[in-house]
Every structure is written in C-alpha cells, then in structure tokens.
Amino acid sequence: MTVMVPSRTPALITPGRQALDSALFQLDQAAAQLGLDDGLRTMLATPRRSLTVSVPVRREDGRMDVVQGFRVQHNVSRGPAKGGIRFHPGTDIYEVTALAMWMTWKCALVGIPYGGAKGGVSVDPTALTTRELERLTRRYVNEILPLIGPEKDIPAPDVGTDEQTMAWIMDTYSVNAGYSVPGVVTGKPMTLGGSLGRAGATSRGVQIAALSALGRSPDGVTVAVQGFGKVGALAAQYLSDAGCKVVAVSDVSGAVYNANGLDVAELRANGIAAYRDADALGLDELLELDVDILVPAALEGAITLENAPRIRARLIVEGANGPTTPEADEILTDAGTTIVPDILANAGGVIVSYLEWVQNMQAYSWSANEVEVKLRDLMEGAFGEVKSTAAERGITLRQAAHVIGVGRVAEAHQMRGLYP
Ligand code: GLU
Q1: Which of 34, 165, 181, 299 has its CA 20 to 30 A from that of 190?
Q2: How far is CA 173 from CA 70, 72, 77, 181, in A?
Q3: Average pLDDT taken over every residue of the chain
Q4: Residue intervals in the chain for CATH 3.40.50.10860
Q5: Which ligand 1 atom lies nearest to the CA of residue 86?
Q6: Which residues of the chain have pLDDT under 50?
Q7: Residue nearest to atom 8 of ligand 1 (CA)
Q8: CATH number of this structure's domain 201-345
C-alpha cells in the first residue's frame, strides 16, 4: 500500500516548507519517544482535511484580483478542529499545515477538547483598504464554509487578522445559516460574544510561562521582545508589570534598545518609530542581546542555524509559532539555553478561545477574573507536566511538550479505533 508522506525534497524550499519540516521532525522525535507504530505516525504526519481555494477580490478601482486561501484540519480525534486564520503574503499550504499540526499538539497539551486547524490567505492585508479586506474575508469564508462550524472547526485570529476579521466571519457564517452563530469563531469583539481576557490571552500566557520557567523573582530580569505586535507588545507589558526590565523590542519598522529599560506603555501607545529614549538597533542584533529572557513573538524561522550560536539569552519563551528551527534548537540546547516551546508558551490564546466558545455554547459570560483564573490553572498545570516529563525522560521542554501532546492524540485515536 502506498502511504501519503509529504516529500521532504521540494523544488523550492519556502519558509512554509521549512516550518512543515520542523513540525514533522518534532513529530518524529515524539513518535520515537512514545514508540508509535509507523501507520499511526504517518496518520499524525498528514492532515485529515486540506482545502485550497482561489479567492476573487474586487479592488477599489474595479479590478479583480485572485488570491490563494487555505484551511487545513490536521486532526479531529479529540474534538472539533481549532485554529487561527493568517493573512500574510508568505503564507502557503505548507505553512498552514505546519501551523495546524502545532495547534493539534497545543490543544492536547493544555487539555482542551479540540483538534488542530489553521487557515491562511496569501495576501498582504496592509496593502488593502478596509472594504477590500472585508470583501476578501467574506469571500474566503464563503469558500471554506463547508468545513467550518461551531461543532466542526472554529477559526480565530492569527497574524494579520483581528477582532474585526472575526466579526465579518461570524456574520458571513450566520447569514448563511439564517441565525446568529457566535460559537463559529473566537477572538470576537465583546459585543458579538467575545470573552473578557481573550485579547491579551496569548500574552498573559507568555508571561505565566516565562515566570514559571524563570523560577526566581522577576525584579530587574532583562527581556528582549522580537515582534512588538498583538502578542509581543502585551507580553512586554505584562512582563514589565511583573517587575522585569524590558530593554529591547522590535517590529518590521525597526528595533530600539535601552539598557535602563523601555517604557512599554509609551511604546504601545506611540509605536517604535516615535520612541526617543533609546538607541536604534538592527533587527538581528535584538535576538543576540545579552538578556535574561528572549521572547520571539513574530514569525516562524527567526532563530536559525546561522544566528543560534550568537544568542546569549539563557531563557527563550516562544510567543510565536515555530520561531526556532530544529538545527537552532539543538545548538541552543547544547549551550544550556532553556526554551519554553511555542505549543506551551503561546497556548494562552487558544485556552481563552476555548473559554469563549464554552461561554458562547451556553449563552453565558464569565467575569474577567473567572477567565483569568481558568487560564492560569491550565497554563501552570501544563507547564508543570512538561517540566516533570522533561525531567523524567531526560529530554528538552519542547520534546516533552510534544511527547505529551502527540501522546494524548495517539491515545484518543487508538481508543476510538479506525473506521471502518
Ligand atoms: N492563532 C492562535 C494560535 O496560534 C490562536 C488560535 C485559536 O485561538 O484558536 O494559537
């Protein structure tokens, strides 16, 4: 019998392809640790459903552009598929597949009853007007409509999408259904059934993970954040609120550094370019600063074979998905660096997405404190499990997180059995 295993020697190695290779490498390591048989490993290496769509978009000048969109459901053994939608020019089917796979392990690791999915459109959202973006979003959702639904597959924000995008998705789905279906997406505005605490959830989770891994007082601990966006900016704020000294932040426009600490609130209010009380820094230099904690919170593949030997932070907390390549991971591990892996460190987002969905399904809402307590419990519980699994097996936190996540999905699959 021939099995469908993604080829590892594509003609063109895109960043997305590299992300998928990283995800497959991590799966292989976990499968070996768990002693999974080849059939099960292959099933977990391949998405259950994968849809590519062409999305026609009417531009303001009347022209029609066509962009590629994707929705991948990697696994649904433990519950409905769950994962964000990314609008980014570099997005391709490989990247979306890798991100969907990471969602599967992430949900299993933190113990929420979902499988993993991801969506994406290869487009630069900053080059579109709001009306173009709305038309694009609605048409893309229409194309993937057969796959999504509150019991099947629940999208959320990711890079390049936000609350407004989620509102358009909720509306498009609801108009098709004939009634309002708030539970079809998470990360919605509060007025449409969003949850208190969802907007800052990923960042809050990064803070919880960072402080758990630090294991000492955060006072004066220095932090550099690569990617001062949705996740990174609030992570910097929460770490600063906890007593850390955020000395450097960057986004696509540039990087700033001040050894005495930056005013994160001012940076969030006015942006990096307007910030005066700091030195400009090269984007690569930020990653290599001598800080206690480095938070990569941008895209995949930021820490590579090339720059890993120069990274001096002793603790890396991955706010982004897939920021460290397997080669870089090995170099850093050998150098004694602790890495809190993406599927643990950034799980706060999907945890509060789950809480939002639960509230939607019961048409009820919880206080900010109830949400925060539940988020903290799940994050700290998962952190403790990863730490003890790593110690018991003598493996890294990333390997341990994958062993737990992959193991739970494999177990669910085996308990259910194979149909037919
Ligand atoms: N896009 C986020 C992630 O990568 C959140 C996904 C969700 O809330 O479903 O974890």
Answers
A1: 299
A2: 17, 18, 24, 7
A3: 96
A4: 47-180
A5: 1
A6: 1-2
A7: 350
A8: 3.40.50.720
